[in-house]
Amino acid sequence: MTKDNIYADQDIPGDFQFNDVVAEVFPDMIQRSVPIYQAILDNIQLLGHRYIQEQSNVYDLGCSLGAMTFALRQSLPLKPERLGAVPQKVNFYAVDNSAPMIQRAQLKLAGYQSNYPTTFVLDNIENVQITNASMVIMNFVLQFFKPQDRYAQLERIYAGLNPGGVLVLSEKFTNPNAYAEEQIKQLHWDFKAKNGYSQLEIERKRNAIENVMILDSLPEHLARLEQIGFEVVIWQLGFNFCSILAFKPQK
Ligand SMILES: Nc1ncnc2c1ncn2[C@@H]1O[C@H](C[S@+](CC[C@H]([NH3+])C(=O)[O-])CC(=O)[O-])[C@@H](O)[C@H]1O
Ligand SMILES: O=C(O)C(=O)Cc1ccccc1
Questions:
Q1: What is the arithmetic mean of pLDDT over 187-191?
Q2: What share of the chain is helix, strand, coil (3-state, %, to 5)?
Q3: For the chain, which terminus, N or C, has the lower number of CB atoms within 10 Å?
Q4: Tens digit of pLDDT for each residue in 107-151?
């Protein structure tokens, strides 16, 4: 795994981008920066086993290197018997609008055998049709959408989900209380420092993502999903990062 030294040697002017340099170090970057990332990756198969339906589609929107698609696809045949039959006809769609990311994802998955067709889509999520979905993953991606577009995109996902399906929505979030917000932000930076990032790296990265990652609060996330019709529960939370299960209930 290539070490993320992007902001160690130089200050890269301008906004953060998912370019070739970032794609190369991405596994290391996300592990050391996002407290709940490993917990999600280690347990996503449990969601797949329970919610992926026979003859349905699974979408990984903003898939980066395809880590979640890979984990789901390889673990689906290992579904425990007590949860019913292993679905045989499932199509995976991994979507990202960064070419360096999607190319690497494609290359990695090509090296592994699977009976589940997997389609890599290099496009903006907003252009991708979502139909007959039993599982949609949006891991740390909605935060890069324009705030005014978020409701419509989630609504579109709700419409494309089958009853009994689930949206996994993971986000970095803010706290409505300014004092608490400052504390949790500092604690997250302590977490990054513990993982080997210097103060200078933390500061430079903070500036680079400031304009591209506009965060909602946790109450905002939950209220919006509920307004659309989802039933929600938080299944992972660490510092200012959370992952929400948003269910489309059976009628
Ligand atoms: N509108 C968009 N359309 C398509 N892709 C987009 C868009 N906006 C952002 N992206 C893509 O979303 C990804 C966000 S990273 C996701 C991690 C992954 N989910 C993981 O579970 O490993 C999270 C992070 O780095 O904080 C990048 O690859 C962008 O190119
Ligand atoms: O690094 C950070 O401080 C973050 O908030 C997470 C992150 C991880 C990868 C790309 C952009 C933001």
A1: 98
A2: 50, 20, 30
A3: C
A4: 999 888 899 999 999 999 999 999 999 999 999 999 999 999 999
Residue nearest to atom 4 of ligand 2 (CA): 33
CATH number of 20-248: 3.40.50.150
Contacts of 184 by beta carbon, 8 Å cutoff, 6+ apart = 175, 239, 240
Q: What ranges do the domains of the chain cover?
A: 20-248
Q: Is the pLDDT of residue 154 over 90?
A: yes
Read off the pTM.
Answer: 0.97
Residue 14 has pLDDT above 90, yes or no: no
Pocket of ligand 2, beta carbon within 6 A? 16, 29-30, 33-34, 172, 205, 209
Query: How far apart are the C-alpha atoms of 36 and 112, rounded to whole Å?
Result: 26
Share the mean pLDDT of the chain. Answer: 96
Q: Is 97 in the pocket of ligand 1 (CB under 6 A)?
A: yes
Whole-number Å distance, alpha carbon 98 to ligand 2 midpoint, is 16
Query: Does 136 contact ligand 1 (Cβ within 6 A)?
Result: no
- Residues in the annotated binding site for S-adenosyl-L-methionine: 37, 62-64, 96-97, 139, 206
CB 5 within 8 A of CB 25: yes
